[in-house]
Write a structure and sequence with these properties.
This protein is α/β, with parallel strands linked by helices. About 35% of the residues lie in helices and about 10% in strands. The protein contains nine helices and six strands. It has a four-stranded parallel sheet. Strands 1-4 form a two-stranded antiparallel ribbon. The longest helix has 16 residues. Its main location: cytoplasm. Keywords: Cytoplasm, DNA damage, DNA repair, Hydrolase. One of its GO terms (cellular component) is cytoplasm. It catalyses: Hydrolyzes single-stranded DNA or mismatched double-stranded DNA and polynucleotides, releasing free uracil.
Amino acid sequence: MTSNIDTSWEPFLSKEFNATYFKALKQFLNEEYKNDTCFPPETEIFNAFKHCDFNNLKVVIIGQDPYHGLGQAHGLCFSVNEGVSFPPSLKNIFKELEQDLGIPYPESGNLTKWADQGVFLLNATLTVRQGEAGSHQKKGWEQFTDAVIKTINEEKENVVFLLWGGYAKKKAKLIDKERHFVLETGHPSPLSANRGYWFGNKHFSKTNSLLEQVGLRSVDW
């Protein structure tokens, strides 16, 4: 399950992997994946850690749960596999991207290209049962991902954290705003976006501006 994580993460994650709560989580997941259909596939649970080298990490986007439909989730928050229809939130992310940067609406919903450039696409809960949103919450994942956010906060500087929606905004308490940049806006879901809480946030251009201010390469969104 954890074998494909980029080696740059190992010094920071080994303590968590050996903790009692994580061993209990692993046991729970073994049963879930054996008895039910769960997403993402076991080999893709830690894709965010596989594609985003800790040393190159410069942006963090925090989601809540993986998509729970067949073939959608592959371990990167808001991202879907090639050829999969875009979920509503991802459609709104791409609409904002198009308006903000004046670039064509993406043809693929796979955000691996972002992750490979140092955009860490982290869900607070990394797994889910098919068709049951939130089914793997409060089993230990949140403790693990909070520890990951704290590690990034403590070990790095000038990271841009994008907190979209109420759940992600709660993670702001884990981040030192003297060391990092925090941009907050509404969630890209239709419910939030249609109420005027998402569109026009310009988080993509703002992120690139902040990165360039501290001498880092902007993201090719």
